[in-house]
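FORM 12-B: Structure-to-Sequence Request
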């Protein structure tokens, strides 16, 4: 059954957030969890993902915004990017959306809101929410 589930890449270094995502996506999507941009790029070379949920602040010298830019330039069939971040600053939101993110949510996020957003992009809508 897992073969028919859409793949979602989650780029998140916070353990509590990783656990939260694991619980809310269980049985709905096949998830791959990574903590850094470098790990995300490796996962993208090995798999095709429909959606990537990306945190802005990540360890390793590259941010989630850097990854979104890379998705737009290096991965032709890359996933739709959804940012979920503790940074609620308008400037960060604009940077993420301008880099190519389809959505920007601040933590904490209600599970229904995130599940609805992921489902929207898994089923094919690419409309950007600003």
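FORM 12-B RESPONSE
SEQUENCE OUT:
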């Amino acid at each position: 059954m897992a073969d028919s589930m859409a793949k979602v890449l989650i780029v998140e270094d916070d353990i509590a957030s990783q656990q939260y995502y694991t619980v809310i996506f269980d049985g709905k999507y096949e998830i791959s969890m990574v903590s850094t941009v470098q790990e995300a790029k490796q996962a993208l070379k090995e798999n095709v993902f429909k959606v990537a949920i990306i945190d802005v602040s990540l360890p390793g010298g590259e941010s989630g915004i850097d990854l979104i830019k890379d998705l737009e330039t290096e991965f032709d069939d890359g996933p739709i990017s959804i940012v979920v971040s503790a940074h609620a600053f308008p400037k960060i939101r604009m940077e993420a959306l301008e880099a190519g993110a389809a959505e920007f949510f601040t933590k904490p996020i209600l599970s229904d809101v995130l599940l609805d957003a992921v489902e929207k992009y898994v089923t094919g809508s690419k409309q950007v929410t600003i």
